[in-house]
Amino acid sequence: MLYLDIRKNKDMINETELKSGYFIYGNKGNVWENTAHIYKSGQGNLCGTPALATNHAKFNGIKVAGCVECSKEYSELMEHQYWIDKKEDLMEG
Ligand SMILES: [Zn+2]
Questions:
Q1: What per-residue confidence (pLDDT) applies to 12?
Q2: Number of folded domains that form the chain
Q3: pTM to 2 decimal places
């Protein structure tokens, strides 16, 4: 029986937080170590790690991006997007 040590902290991005076009990606090692990446559709993992193998994170039901780099990158992207949206609202408003 496999027990995963889910060390969820506030910096980790949950699958439910991801916008469309982003998903959790991980190879076997990522599943074991709980370091799944955030994959951007058509581009690759946010931290730059190549995503070549089968998405084991998906098959193993991993719901959290444990990769610190990806989580940080995603947070920054979303913060950036927030201000773009806000600027557009102001211009339209
Ligand atoms: Zn990553």
A1: 85
A2: 1
A3: 0.80
